[in-house]
Amino acid sequence: MKLTDEFYRQKDVVKVARALLGKKLCTLIGGVFTSGIITETEAYNGIHDRACHAFGGKLTKRTATMYEPGGVAYVYLCYGMHHLFNVVTGTEGVPTAVLIRAVMPADGVDAMLQRRNKTQPDKTLTLGPGSMSRALGISTALNGESLSGKKIWVEDAGLRLPAIEIVSSARIGVEYAAEDALLPYRFVWQA
DNA sequence: CAAACGATTTTCT
DNA sequence: GAAAATCGTTTGG
User: Fold this and answer.
1) Confidence band of A11 (pLDDT split at 50, 70, 90)
2) Which nucleotide is nearest to A100 (CA to C1')?
3) The whole model's pTM is what?
């Protein structure tokens, strides 16, 4: 069951970030299918969030994707070498998105190992936004791509997570965002 | 046109 | 714990 635009276009990006835990992120890149169960996310809450690229209504070539209607991919290059993947949420003109920071490997583990230059699965295979993207073959070529298409999408795998297994905390790597850096916008599923 | 800067990861000391 | 790797985007002159 692929998630619908209605799911992505909910008003509260924080709720979407929490709801994405336990969902299955799938990619079909160059004929290779890989997927993983989402275990860590972060919400970026539009123009009033100092940690968000679109803080203050900043609209540039890079951030434009965040202003699109929910249900597309926002992928950007960080530190010159990492492709970070976000799910754009909300309605058109509202720059909210959810960063996917980690998944649990599901399908296509061999392909992930190859992309990550590993021979054995380990804890770091799909842990961390840069590593997760690389394992699933996600790159900036997917920026703006519809999540209802055939290259990348999210499915409801039918998992129901007990609330007690979901932990929230401050976001990672956004110390520059002053008081907004303290907001509990990061969600981790620890089974 | 030049320069600084990351929503990070890996490796070395 | 510190530092390097590495480049498109953004900003300032």
Assistant:
1) very high
2) B7
3) 0.97
